[in-house]
Amino acid sequence: MQQSKLISISTQKLKFIPYTEEVVETYHKWMQDPEILYLTGSEPLSLEEEYKNQESWLNDPLKHTFIIKNDAMMIGDVNLFFHQYLDDDEAEINVMIGNKNARRQGFAEEAIKMMMSFGLQQYKKTKYIAKIKDSNEGSIKLFQKVGYKEIKKLPQFEEIHLQMIIDAPLIEYIKY
């Protein structure tokens, strides 16, 4: 396992903690919500399967997941995926605010910026792709607000792909 998977990152509003077995039960509760399952393109898992999934993700060099916390409360997760079909400087990013009481408070926007900064510093990634259900207008608007531009529509998968390329002026914009 990469040492970077066990670090925590903090700002004034948020803290990223590693996706460890201590957080699986709360995460599992979120992933029982049909809306969250649909929007994340996930299948429902048993708690036992969720624990196995957590261990797999923690050890997978092509994935980096953080749990997002606000004060002492878990509110969601944020991920980078390093798919083999992507360029060396590119990663897929996604964010989920699983705690519905924490939505629409700017946490997802800050989490995206924090994760892009982390991806730039830890992995030297300068291109980010967000794959979003085309019916998820809130998430599409969120990524566009951060600066992502639409690059592809995949109606057969009900998906839209947005991309952001980090250049020198944007590095300061996302730095934490």
From TrEMBL:
Residue span, N-acetyltransferase domain: 14-169
InterPro entries xrefs: GNAT_dom (IPR000182), NAT9-like (IPR039135)
Annotated GO MF terms: N-acetyltransferase activity
PROSITE patterns on file: GNAT
UniProt keyword terms in alphabetical order: Acyltransferase, Transferase
Domain of life: Eukaryota
Protein's name according to its UniProt entry: N-acetyltransferase domain-containing protein
Species of the source: Paramecium sonneborni
Highest classification ranks of the organism: Eukaryota, Sar, Alveolata, Ciliophora, Intramacronucleata
